[in-house]
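In full, the data.
>
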Amino acid sequence: MKLLSTAATFLLCVAPFSATARSLDFFGSQTPIKAEGKHVEGENPLEYCSDPSSYILQIEKVDLSPNPPLPGQTLTIEAKGTFNEKIEKGAYVLLEVKYGLITLVRQRADLCDQIVNVDLECPLEKGEMALTKQVDLPSQIPPGRYTVHADVYTADDRRITCLDAPNVVFKRNFL
C-alpha cells in the first residue's frame, strides 16, 4: 500500500506540475528515462497526453533527483510552471497506475484534498509556481514495468493538465 501512496504522491506532484521516474539496471549502470512523445521538459519520463498549449497549467520543467529514483532512497522532485487561472475547490484528478497489464489504481480523487500531501492547498492561485518535494521511496518496489496516467480537471471539467509516464521499469536490485 505504501507503493500506491508513493505513486499517488508522485503523480499529485505531476498533476499540479510534473514528476519523473527511472529504470534500475541489474549491474548498476543507469540511464535516465526519457519520454518518447511530447516530452515534459526536464529529467523525467513524462509525456503530455495531447498538445499542452490549451492546458491551464503550463509546465516549464520537472526534475527528479536522483534520476532514476532508487528504492529506499529519498526522491527530490522539483517542478516549475504557470497556472493560467486560479484553481478552485472541486478540481479533480483521474489517476491510473498499472503494473504490467494489472491495474493497481484507477480512481477519481479531489485535487484539493490530495495536494496537501505535496504541501499545497486550494485555491491554487493564477501565476507562476515552483514546487520542491522530497518523497521517501519504499526499499521494496516490486520489479516490473509500471505505467501512470494522470488527467486533471477543474470543477467545471476544463483540463488543467494531462500526463503519462508510459514506461517506468524497476529491475530486481542485486547486491
Strands lie at 47-48, 57-65, 74-83, 92-99, 102-110, 127-136, 144-153, 159-170. The chain has one domain: 2-170.
